User: Fold these one by one.
Assistant:
Number 1:
Amino acid sequence: MTLAIRLRDVSKSFRLRHRSPFLARELLRAVMQRPTRVEVFWALRHVSFEIRAGEAVGVIGHNGAGKSTLLSLVARTARPTEGELEVNGRVAAMLELGAGFHPDLTGYENIFLNGMLLGLSRREVAARLESIAAYADLGEFLDTPIHTYSTGMRARLGFAVVAHVDPDIIILDEVLGVGDAAFQDKCRATLTRFRAAGTTMFLVSHQPSNVRALCERVLWLDQGRLVADGPTEDVLARYREASQQLATRTAAARPAAGQSGTTPGS
């Protein structure tokens, strides 16, 4: 069995610095270098799993669960605070729309920039330039700076480059949630082609339909911990049930409409 990704007891922390609002009356304290309170926030705690080469694995969880942090570790744009991480093969990651693009460069110039950041040589990008441009289908906008692009246009260009990298591992964070229907269909078709070619896929999506269509296995994160790892339908069912229970508890704790929480005349 060839492993593409392995995590052993991986944790990731961030140091958060809290400062009081800077008001005029606090100037003296600031000059005297009043200490700043530092909090350690653990985005991931003791996460362990293995992904075989060629597997398609989705990551689900509520906002703040640690999904994007996990993908950034696997993409090697961040390092774990604790534990061991192993990633084997060329990785193409699209973690944030526009990541790797320079706003003042044109679309064509950013194709070269992004392609080389993803591991292609300049010659390889040049050989694929016409195909990338046709895939993005942005026409004359490829001659204009990226800062003039809409979110959907950036998504088109970013995914067009990723689609031509021929990676061993592709990592995507909510890419299928942007762009028009035609662009999303093109993305899904490309990912299906990657999967058929044996590319390892690791993606985050809040759309169960996308996870169901593309992934054979799902990881469920909650508050930085891996709470489930298994077949897609099984984990999605557990996640849906837990989400419904949470919604029910939240609704029950909310005061009924028209109730102020005070007695009449108080």
Note: The chain has a mean pLDDT of 86.
Number 2:
Amino acid sequence: MRDIADFPTDGVTFRDITPLLGDAAAMASAVNALVDQFAGVAVDRVVGVEARGFIFGAAVAYRAGAGFVPVRKAGKLPWAVVREEYALEYGTDKLEIHRDAIHPGERILIVDDVLATGGTAAATAKLVETLGGVVVGLAFLLEIEALAGRGKLGERSVKSLLAY
């Protein structure tokens, strides 16, 4: 991974995972480790958050034998949605999920690449719970501890492969 200063806005350091994605062994190791963190936990569906969460989420869903559900930025899904607004390090945004993507009582693992301020992850968990899903965990490739995002996720099980 590499850090890119002042992207997407001044003062923000972007954590670029594309070098990891381009290395087959590193990518396989990351996916396997994400799955292993929740070994023994029943998962019906994996929710991946746009956009890099799609990459890991789909692979984790495949390995876990679960369905995959995309959570997208507003206006990207073609059917009836539930929407949640959240705060970023540099503003606000909105996430959406199809209304029929999750059924009451389904056990959901949320997967994304980076846990930073926790706004995206908290909004995703709220979308899942609004539809009646049970968040059994949140899995991240990287956690930026100084931004304290874990604190926005309450008592949910949160696991990160790397933290700094």
Note: The chain has one domain: 2-163.
Number 3:
Amino acid sequence: MVGREMLSVLEERRFPAEEVIALASPRSEGTPLPFRGGELRVRAVEERHFAGVDLAIFSAGGGASREWASVAVRQGAVVVDNSSAWRMDPAVPLVVPEVNPGDALRHRGIIANPNCSTIITLMALAPLHREAELEYFSAVTFQSVAGSGRKGVEELERTARDALGGADPQGSLYPHPIAFNVLPQVGNFDDGGVSDEEWKMVRESRKILGLPGLDVSSTTTRVPVFCGHSVAVTARFRRDLSPERAREVLAQAPGVLVEDDPSRGFYPHPRRAAGTDPVYVGRLRRDTGMGNALAFWVVGDNVRKGAALNAVQIGELLLRENSLGKRS
């Protein structure tokens, strides 16, 4: 899903590529993909296909990224990788262009795209951090099945039909049926009961914001929504930050839209965000349990800004800054 969305974003944003090459595993070789009024034929990934490539955008899982990223770099490409393979490597920048664009320019050939929930959350948190200095935040995520790829979407469709038809829905992708359910598990758990996805929020946020000692709490859940991740955030700041000032700051932040009039039902939700580029913020209010803290709700399309769009924006940043290597 993300790979196809990357092609759509490249086309929509008129990325100035002389040639676009689609690579995948041998089983997908020859698959036609629509692009720029024509079609691309998928090629089986081989080292020779990276020759002459300036920018290689990866979205094929950690194993493929570890195997092929260094190959692409040796051929002269800059790799923007959407998997978790390189995110916590100290030598690899982890970048959200609206948050830490300067980090991208210090690359050594590979730049990592953060986790989708981390991107969506930090798009709202980073401007507030610059205003009032973030000390702690808690993020509870409500993650759509699109985060599991096409199989997740198909499983929600199938189990919902079964449940509505009176049958007992039987899923295979998740530990329990996802239709009309909420699962407090995204990824595997460690010995302390913290999931992979929860650690991503903690560690990636610290790296992107340049705050290695930042206190972060996270609970991640999977919900029966096709596309669009939502996050309930509580954030404490060193300096007082009123909800009114927070709205002003976020209204000026690139890539963020404030929708915050809850008494009229005006607040973000996944159906609003799906298929769009911005990250939406609403329900801004003072937290009821901590001083110097705000609570808010943030929503974004996890396939677009949470993955494909962010990767293409990194490519655009590198192009603007002439940081795509010797051939740029």
Note: The longest strand covers residues 134-143.
